[in-house]
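protien #1 (seq + structre)
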Amino acid sequence: MAVKQAVIAAIMRQFGHPRGAAGRVAGWVMAHRRSNRQRNSWVVSLLELQPTENVLEIGFGPGLAIAELSRRAGEHGHVCGIDHSDVMLRQATRRNAAAIAAGRVTLRRASVDQLPTALGGPFDAILAVNSLGLWPAPAERLGELRRRLRPGGRIAIASQPRCPGATASTSRTAARKIEALLQDAGYTKTRTQTLDLNPPVVCVLAGNPDPDRGRSPPASDPTS
């Protein structure tokens, strides 16, 4: 029993940054757990991705959301993703091999505080599912990501608290913290959606302000 508990504890520690054999097991669990699949598919649906849009995922894990994003983006959109784990990069690459070969998906090993310039942009949408809590200086990171969004673009930050004893109240508290971080980083029109799992998943959506929206067109030159 003690050995079994030690193995389980070692795997649980891997979810933040999977490495080695235990990390591969953690990745398999993330890819096959029903609630994880529900959560990723739901968050992607909230973005209402259009077929020509470009999207970036921060912390793609085993690549579940990447696969769904790629399906929705179609042939004319593009999906990028970063993750700081070599193990997750390999698993996500295998899961999305056909889309990568077709040039519709680009995956990179990188951390959110060192975004590769080669990722390009600006993006129409950015998402992160259960990774914000691992970011260093999340307010700064959200500000940097906003600069990667086109004006009028949107972001989705999802969280399903995994701390012992987490409840619906824990999820609501997480949502309020995410909302505050997004607003401090300059995002607008924040709104929260909830997926009824145990504990509930919260997803806070927000937009990157478009400075030209609502601006009156220049007056015509009467002499022209």
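ok now protien #2
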Amino acid sequence: MIRTNQPLSRADLARRTGLQRSTVSLIVDQLIGERWVVEGGVGQLPRGRRPRFLYLNTERAGIVGINIEPRLTTIVLADLNTRLWAEETIPTGRDPSTFIGVLSSHVCRLIRQHPDVAYEAIGVSVPGRVDYLGQRLVFAPNLGWRQVDLKKPLESSTGLPVQMENAANACALAEVWSGPHEGMSDLIAVAVSEGIGTGIIANGHLVRGPSGAAGEFGHVCLDPQGPKCNCGGRGCWEVYASNPAAIRNYDRQNPDRSGKPEEEATQDRVTSFTDILALAERGDRRAGEVLDTMAHYLGLGMAMLVNGLAPSVIVVVGEVTRAWKRVGPLVQGVVRECARTHAATRIVPADDATRPRLRGTIALVLQKHFRPRLFA
């Protein structure tokens, strides 16, 4: 209550919770003693004793967040209000054992640079399937990693507990943890990047399944005769609607560069999805058509989610949201055409500037202390 409504007085807490004032005072005194809460300014009242305001103690603990993606891994330090105040980026190595050693050394160094903070734990998001109970990475197709233990080496090197989660699930937690969708009980986060992941909040709970592999809609087959996917299947949703799919589509549309001057051929070359976004913004016809095709396939997949789960909202996470003025209406049109349940699902872009994946890594740790009703 204090975290989401600060500053609050003891009297405010009693009114909001329905608890006796004496009970509230006992709980608050304990939280102050444990340094979760601090007293701040004094409020003004027309008469009577002036209340002391209560705040979450952002200096009590730091949280380490790690977001692993195929190209780069980002390490952040954050406070209890999810404010990111230190950041470092390193290349993601192909060999998991070597990479974990490098990652551990960078995390330890970043922690040593801020010695005045007591660190609570480490939250890690990974682009793949996670055995939630065993806290192991089962399979990350776009990393080429199978059965990788990140938890034990990180805990051994840092001395901090580690909580690991699939990146899309972390995005879903970030959305219901803070911002316009805070507290929403039915939401799907669709993370569009090197692959497509879906994090599902249903009836107030994160859907993991018994093994933690629930929600792998990016690997639902749209066409058994389609292109091969990194998972080993064919025609998966992500081979049509992910960032690499857009790059491949652009290359297929690109005419033969032979005979062109080197400078012109270099200008035609696309190496990242950011290049496609930039070209489309400058009016490049092929880049625009690639985004239109991507939007069509995103819509097909989201219609599947609406038909199957009928969430209140689908939040799209990823660079594609930067082109949402073009992509969004096309996605909505396909969903209207293909979703037959008449569910009133809203499809909205996440603000890429809010770093949903990284906020999700912080939420993985915070949920151990806050909001147990939703994420028990």
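Residues 285-309 form the longest helix (25 residues).
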